[in-house]
User: Fold this.
Amino acid sequence: MKIAVKIAFMAAATIPAAASAQEAGRMLSLDEAVAVTLTENPALKAAAYEERAAQQQRRAAIGLRMPQINVTGAYAYMAKDIGFDFNEMKGPAKDLAGKILGSGIITDPAIIQGIQGLLNPMMNADWFLKVQDRSLGFVGGEVTVPIWMGGKINAANRAARINEKTAVEQGNQTRNALISELVERYFGLALATQVVEVRQQVVDGVRKHLEDARALERNGMIAQTERLYVEFKMAEAERELANAKLQAETIASALSNTLGRESDWRPVTSMFLLTKVEDLAYYQDLAQARNPLLSQVSLKRELAQEGVRVQRADFLPQVAAIGGGSFYNYQVAGLVPRWAVGVGVNIKIFDGLNREYKYSAAKQTVRRVGELQNKAGKDIAVLVEKLYNQMMNYRNQMTSIDASLKFAEEYLRMKNAAFLEGMSSSSDLIDAELNLAGVRTERLQAAYNYDLLLAQLLEAAGISDEYPSYARRSDAQAILYDKK
Assistant:
């Protein structure tokens, strides 16, 4: 399978997703991840082998047009020699000779004595005329040249080419699905890493609030219940941080599985949102023309049509030229010819309506695949519309999420100041801290969903290879975790 992947490293494509990307681990841009996946992933290698197998099958179908040449050899030992047995005629022959000698026709004693002298050895001899020895063998060859098979050979070659194209489309489908899987796990790891930082900041903030609460409790400024509430939230924040770290480890393993390489990967290409993308009709038109699944359904219909031609060929005569000869003979009678050529014709007259029913079944298969093709085209169009609308929905949500983020940051600052002055409870402060963490996580999650839906949209449109170029667009807005 020929896979052309252009790797370009630009600053817009390698904006650090988070500060943790600079920590220990192997840096990995999205372009590098795509290149590694398309080189190392076992599923893509298997698809390449499938395509090569289809190529060989197509070449094998070409051989159906060629002469078939066989070399054969045989040795046989029969129960007896083949020939004509005249021993049963000895009696009548002896009687006839006696009658002739006794009839007086021959009177010369010397002649009579001579005939009797010849007659006795003849009667004692074996009157078996051998034509073929019981032991024989030969080495020879035969050639068969198909002249007209009713169109079966042409149909077989066309079917082999269709199967080869199907294997290519299956490879394209596998490649597109892998790119979507890579985006899901690559940005999934970027999201999980940043969520860990969000949870870590929550833990650090709650820990500071806990220290302040303990100091205020000692000074009699807050009740014990306020300090206990902060301790409860501290335990809850630590538990969520531990869960976030475990989730990040799981996604990292999944990313290594997609890449086909084990390493401590650190994504450096940030999640992004595009200010503008092509309209819905653009992707729907691409899907109808380039979606590998639709292409496979179309090829299946062509293959079904070839099946009709194969069944129709059974109604036509089949003609072949044949020839053969022997190269070496062992005790083979000279009466047997050493070579022969000819033409054979086979015409099937009646086979219990087997051909008629198979021909009808093949036509029904064409109709069935045609209906499936129509349905698949509509399903893909609906899928593209669904993915496009969901993607645009997340982009539109980002404006309100950014406004919520600004409010949550300011609200936390105000609650912190009020808490230090004793004008706000610890529960209000902790709730403000958790609200800010929730908004930040929601913002990252919205960006991740947008990127994942974009990958699935391009997969449905059959242009998954273009995904990295979308991340490098000038209007691609990097979505990062802001620690302030």
Remarks:
- The chain has eleven helices and ten strands.
- Residues 152-218 form the longest helix (67 residues).
- The CA atoms of residues 155 and 306 lie 6 Å apart.
- The beta strands are 26-28, 68-77, 82-85, 128-132, 135-148, 265-267, 271-274, 318-330, 339-346, 476-479.
